[in-house]
Amino acid sequence: MSDQAEPVSGDFESFADFCSRSDPEYPKGKNGKFRCPCCLHFTLGGVAQYDICPICFWEDDGTTGEHGFSPNGISLVEGQENFKTFGACVEDMKPHVRPPQEDEKE
Fold first, then answer.
1. pLDDT tens profile 46-102
2. Residues 6+ positions from 50 with CB-CB distance below 8 Å
3. Where are the domains positioned within the chain?
4. Is residue 52 a contact partner of residue 45, using CB atoms and an 8 Å limit?
């Protein structure tokens, strides 16, 4: 085994374990879409399918709070805080987001 650090920290023994984890379960809205774990609006067509939320620009790979690895380059907790502060998961993505539509709200 290599001395290189695994790219995932948290409850996983290895990156392979992380990759073989079960997808999380997200609530489904009245509009038939799943709730984005970052902004909590109902915008995703599936769970952990790498959809990008049009409201916060979070790319959903199924990353939840138990680890810091994600394709977004930040943890979900950081994305949620950024959304509260900037209106996007990362400040640079603010030009790419829009306000939620009525059927996307809780």
1. 998 999 999 999 999 887 765 555 678 888 889 999 999 999 999 999 999 999 999
2. 59, 60, 61, 71
3. 15-100
4. no
Helices (H), the chain: 15-19, 76-86
pTM: 0.79
Of 93, 100, 84, 83, the closest CA to residue 42 belongs to: 100
Q: Is the pLDDT of residue 25 over 80?
A: yes
Displacement of CA 35 from its chain's centroid (Å): 10
- Distance, in Å, from the CA atom of 57 to the CA atom of 9, rounded to the nearest integer, reads 24
Please give the Cα distance from 106 to 97 (Å, whole number). Answer: 18
